[in-house]
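step: validate -> pass
step: tokenize input -> pass
step: predict -> running
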Amino acid sequence: MQMKDAMNLTAAGAGGRTAGKAQVVGKDTGRKNGRKAAEHIMQVVFLICGLIAVGFVLLISVYLIISGIPAIREVGLVNFLFGDTWDSYNKTDPQFGILPMILTSVYGTAGAIVIGVPIGFFTAVFLSKVAPPKLAAVVRPAVSLLAGIPSVVYGLVGMIVLVPWIRTTFNLPAGDSLFAAIIVLAVMILPSIISVSETALQAVPQEYEEASLALGATELETYFRVSVPAAKSGIAAAVVLGIGRAIGEAMAILMVAGNVANMPSLFSSVRFLTTGIAIEMNYASPGSLQRNALYSIGLVLFLFIMLINVLLNVVLKREKED
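step: predict -> pass
step: emit ->
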């Protein structure tokens, strides 16, 4: 009897352990299935978000092409892109040449990049690598504040402070000029370049810098020869964001550039592509050649941004392959 009881207890214990293991295995299987289901759901959500983004880009592209091609066809591609006269309000012989606005946008964006990118880049290196924590805690909120200021405020400050200073300093009849627009744009793109570049630099693994210092490099050599090349793609993205904001800005430029469709000169009144659309869109009759020409200007702007992104991606891809 005692042997039977012992055997029964042993069998009961084994059965209990087996049941316990089965419950644990069942719980683990349920958790894995739950995780797989959650991952699958998130993959579907991400896919939908990506398709929505691509859909919006395609929708904008198709709309601009449909709205802008009729004006280009009627005016002529060469006359539209290389004509040096924009006189859309002339009832008898309207002119729709946008070459002055194209060159002004290119020169203005290039000038803003030449001024803003070095300042923003060195500021990002300073904040992420050199600045004491207390000083960085003061500068970063200031950069964020610059990013949150509306563009109309930049234009207002430029119109009240910068334009009169240019007029008196260079002895000009008016201070509204390409130079004023370049300065305003350079200030406006700083927050994007600083924030994105700093984030990219902070994402560089600390081991890279430690290895460089261990090999005898100085801190500055490490920052510019190790950290910066490692964060190259992020810094390039910052430059693209800066170019996009510079070439797409309208309100601030509207207040400091003078808004005359002249061939670009540093101290003369000029008109950008964006301001050309902003000035005349409300006064153009629906379905008129003038309004269609304004849509064509938007198409040219869109192609500019696409071309800049493609060129930058090609350059970065070649550097990675090398």
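step: describe -> The first helix runs from residue 2 to 75.
step: cleanup -> pass
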